[in-house]
Input
Amino acid sequence: MTSAPPEHETPMLHPELRTDGDPDAIVRRGRRLDHAEGTSKPLKSRREPQPRGAKVHGNRPIDQAEAAARFIAAPEHEKMHDERLWDLRQKRDREMQAIPEWEELRSLAAAIKEHTLTHLDDYLEEFETNAQSNGIHVHWARDAAEHNRVVHEILRDHGAKSLIKSKSMLTEECGFRHYMASVGIEVIETDLGERIQQLDHEDPSHVVVPAVHKLRTDVAAVFARTLGTDPENSDVHYLAEAQREATRPLILQADAGMTGCNFAVAETGGFVVCTNEGNADLSANVPKLHIAAIGIEKIIPRLEHLAVFVRLLSRSALGSPITQYTSHFRGPRAGGELHVVLVDNGRSKRLGMAEFWTSLKCIRCGACMNTCPVYRRSGGLSYGATYSGPIGLIIDPTFNARKYSNLPFASTLNGSCSNVCPVKINIHQQIYAWRRELVNLHEVPLVKKVAMKAAGELLSRPAAYRAAIAAGDAALAHLPRFVIYSGLNAWGRHREMPHPPKQTFHDWYKANRAEKP
Amino acid sequence: MRIGLFIPCYIDALFPEVGIATLELLERFGHDVVYPRDQTCCGQPMANSGFNADCAATEALFVRNFSGFDCIVAPSGSCVHHVRDNFDAIEQTPEVKAVRGCVFEIVEFLHDVQQADAFPWARFPHRVGLHNSCGTLRQLKHAKSSELHEPFFSKPMDLLSKVDGIEFVTPARPDECCGFGGTFSVFEEVVSTKMGYDKVTDHARAGAEYIVSADSSCLMHQQGCAERIGVPIKFIHIVQILNGAGA
Output
């Protein structure tokens, strides 16, 4: 048995190892232990696995709450996600404060969009005519399948086997990558976040920052698996460079390029794509063939209107004054070909919905997602849909009311989304309206239906209600803790029950204001 | 003024002291306050869940109870918002419209109608964090929302500033939702409670002894969250402070 060295003895420790204040040091009798146990650091714990998104079973309703609970059960991911997106919201606030006419800009943007949407047929035809006279081939697609077929035909006519593309939520809507895989055409996403998601076989979790739910260690694991990088190296510069080295040759050799569109200008027949990586320019300009997928709601009447939207878009999205690249495409470049596909895919139907048509004003900035306290804590993949967050809650059910019937309930109706929306969509009121609509469509669980019917009956009968209140209080006061906090009581699973008072206000009033009616 | 006192169901059953403070405060300003005994609820729980038809009988009962007062006052922002902005399961007769048009949340009433400029009976020598519930903030517009470019104003802060000894602390995310959200709190309980934990932690970090709000429902949820994770912070409705609690 060894005893501790006497106090005056010099410990056998290299001076460099004598780190005063080291939180991991083990100290006995006021001295740091200097043998192996005392100086070695504890091994790093295993990295937290990335929580995956909602479980999708065909047409069955997505259980957003279940997926959100798994996201919250991964605290490193949830904390990073919440803080990262809240940071974007704060940057957005700072940009807003610097523009005195901010609220006026929002009103202007909303008015331009509402005017355009109520004259959409005229502006679409104007765009088509002007685009054609610029030498652009204009195609129309009624739905996702037609969009995919049209693009496939263009590629086939040119013998194209590989396609580079920039990020487009519309192509996500259309399941475009899956379709292209099924016809043997290789698609390479050029937006870094979207490329990460493509390599990981995951959908984007956010309309602007598609891989924001991933830690850099998650990205390192994906790249190690798909690009052969060092799985232990999660340095962002190393990862970005490795991806660049792997993707640039594919870009240079691609047969065709594809972009989405942020704004299509009727008066000029041109369109604008906003990116921060310049990847839309690569996609459009490196190959000779450029195809752009454009949702019909992307039309604005005149070039001058762009000034309103460009000022709002990136400030709302990322809290930066403008995107790094705002690229205007007016016609094919010399020796090249430019095709646009104008896609409906449910938009005309939405335009006819009295309570929901203004959701078509959306410019896909993601500000409502960044501010949403539910989204920040759930992760975008918990929604199991192309569009997540507040805007998703009101758009997704227009595609499939059954599958997305739970989504409008994934909200506290706090209204922050409507306040940040640069085109003033009344998002939280539409979420509320969707709840009513889903009840009318019988797309809510029976248990809720029964509970609400019972509540409605009880609350309209004062005597029965009084009796129930008394019983409820008695239950709270007398039931043992294990019943109150059982799995049957959703309130008590993660929070304490309120403390029942000695008497209700009703009884107090009867006793203390007896003279009153 | 003859005032109908609307005490929402959960305040009646769980926070009678908030109802009492509301009544006493209105009486201090000389009003004739009546609590219609047959009142239950405004219908909001069913309406917020989408079951509008199931609110009809409750809304009709509400109108029977509250018809004929000069105004109706309640210590709950979300209930007032429901009656004022969403109460449409029943036919909108002139009587229904009159009821909906004269309902006030207590802070609004004191600030805009009463224009109260002093609470000499009140003293609250504590550091408080103000929680503007989403219903009062973004629906009833009690205060400037952080998202909007508009001049600063805050009705609850104006009133509380007139209370002797009170000190405000500012949390990092002052108007982030606390996660209550009515039936959201049970149907999405994991997200709801995570938001609650974050909210009470934020206030505690800012140094608040009390979280004060015009909505007892938010406070009930936050208190349950704080007790579960052991955040030592107290909760009080704004009307209790204005009526002199702790003085």
The longest strand of chain A covers residues 289-295. DSSP finds 23 helices and twelve strands in chain A.
